[in-house]
Amino acid sequence: MQEDSEKKITLLARVAAAAFYGFTSFFIIVANKVILTSYKFPSFQFLGLAQMVTGVVALFTAKQLSLIKYPDFAPDIFQRIWPLPVVFVGNLLCGLGGTKKISLPMFTVLRRFSILFTMIAEFWILGIKASKAIQLSVYLMIAGALVAGVFDLSFDTVGYVLIFINNVCTAANMVYTKKKLDAKDLGKYGLLFYNSVFMIIPVFCFTLYMGDMEKAYYYEHWGNPLFLVQFLLSCVLGFVLNYSIVLCTQVNSALTTTIIGVLKNLIVTYIGMVLGGDYKFSWLNFIGLNVSVIGSVIYTYLTFKRPAKPVVLEIVKPAEQV
């Protein structure tokens, strides 16, 4: 009876963490799209920097109030969490850039490639092999994404490149987060805090070099209360999203976290056809979108129908390659 209870609690925790991440990811995509497209905010780099600063301030304040714990700074921390800071900021900035450049339906469907990349990364880095049924559901999503991409009437080269980099960074971020959490040295709060701390200055310098600090300073809607509320909401959600990613990855798998992030796009896909006003409808594109959505639904069913453990390869990798 006790073992059954523990299994139920474990499954409940997995589903709750996944749902928390899904809802947070949905709301921040909508908030970012409104800010960057509807309000035409000129710099996604500045928005990303603001989200990072919000996270650092929130975590530092929570630690000072003894609400959370994470290790104090030490010279070897950067080495211990490498390469997470780089893939973290690449994931953040390229995701925001893609959101600005591409319509939400195409953004969400192209993000499904991150699932394939995560599945491959889990195999090579963590030694975890997905079942054949899960692999087939992922391939179905990718097939739909390819059809939708070929018939995308609002194709944007820069946007597609940013989303591709975003997908690679997402896969690396999920897998290495899982790996660092398993090490149990910094914990989820330490990873969140130091990921942002180490990258704030490089991102600030890059934003300054690109002239985006000046663009943001002279932006016309800073006096608009409605815009300010949504900008602040985006900053807070940026921190909450990062926390939900780490939490979901901790109790589930890197691939599950990625797929939940894509599954919530089922709603975003259809809302995005209206929101932002930059989606151009075509039947073949619409069919591709729906095929990819069906693949997402099938994967979710396969993942959560039972609390199954991942298949671990019997091959033991050398310590220096792990």
Characterise this structure.
This protein is 75% helix and 1% strand. It is mainly α. Strands 1-2 form a two-stranded antiparallel ribbon. Helix 1 (2-38) packs across helix 12 (254-263) and helix 6 (113-126) runs antiparallel to helix 7. The relative contact order is 0.21.
Key traits:
mainly alpha
Number of strands: 2
Order of adjacent strands in the largest pleated sheet: 1-2
Structural class: mainly alpha
Shape designation: globular
DSSP summary: helix tally: 14
How large is the share of residues in beta strands?
Answer: under 5%
Radius of gyration: 20 Å
Instruction: Report the biggest beta sheet as strand number plus sense, adding barrel if it closes.
Output: 2 strands, antiparallel
Mean pLDDT: 77
The succession of helices and strands, N to C, reads: HHHHHHEHHHHHHHHE
Strands, helices and their partners?
Layout: H1 2-38, H2 44-64, H3 77-81, H4 84-101, H5 104-110, H6 113-126, E1 128-129, H7 132-150, H8 157-183, H9 187-209, H10 212-217, H11 225-251, H12 254-263, H13 265-271, H14 283-304, E2 311-312
Antiparallel strand pairs: 1-2
Helix pairs in contact: 1-4, 1-11, 1-12, 2-4, 2-9, 2-11, 4-8, 4-9, 5-13, 6-7, 6-8, 6-12, 7-14, 8-11, 8-12, 11-12, 12-14
Summarize the structure.
The protein is built from 14 helices and two strands, in the order ααααααβααααααααβ.
